[in-house]
Amino acid sequence: MTDKEKNEVIAWWAGFRPYYFGVHGWMAEGIVFEELPDFTDLTTLFKWCVPKLDHIEVATNHFDTGKYYGYACIEHTRKLGYGDTPGEALRDAIVSAIREGDDS
User: Fold this and answer.
1) What DSSP line would sit under the chain, residue for residue?
2) All residues at 6 or more sequence positions from 87 whose CB lies less than 8 Å from its CB, including other chains
3) Which of 41, 43, 42, 34 is nearest to 16 (CA)?
4) What pTM was estimated for this model as a whole?
């Protein structure tokens, strides 16, 4: 899955919807965005995603120096994600939890 596809999965889950009124973009909570926010940015994740999660954790992966892991729990679905930054790791954990929850 590409970074763009991961961003779109999180955006839909977080409540973003396409917006086509004079400008093509996205809308969430009454705010129009020309582009989706960067969901590898921790500030963005804490604004749009973390309030919807049951539990999160982001830490350094001690088994692979320089890498991070993220842990996200949505309802009873718990997933780990890995990345070069804490934001990438948490984003990937959230995407994995969303996708697994959709399969059940």
Assistant:
1) --HHHHHHHHHHHHT-EEEESSSEEEEETTEEESS---TTSHHHHHHHTGGG-SEEEEEE-TTSTT-EEEEEEETTEEEEEEESSHHHHHHHHHHHHHHHHHH-
2) 39, 40, 41, 42, 44, 45
3) 34
4) 0.82
Residue ranges making up the domain that contains 49: 3-103
Residue 95: CATH number of its domain = 3.30.2120.10
The number of distinct structural domains making up the chain is 1
Distance CA 93, CA 27 (A): 24
Q: What is the pLDDT of residues 19-59, one digit of tens each?
A: 987 778 999 999 989 899 999 999 999 999 988 888 877 77
- pLDDT band of 64, cuts 50, 70, 90: low
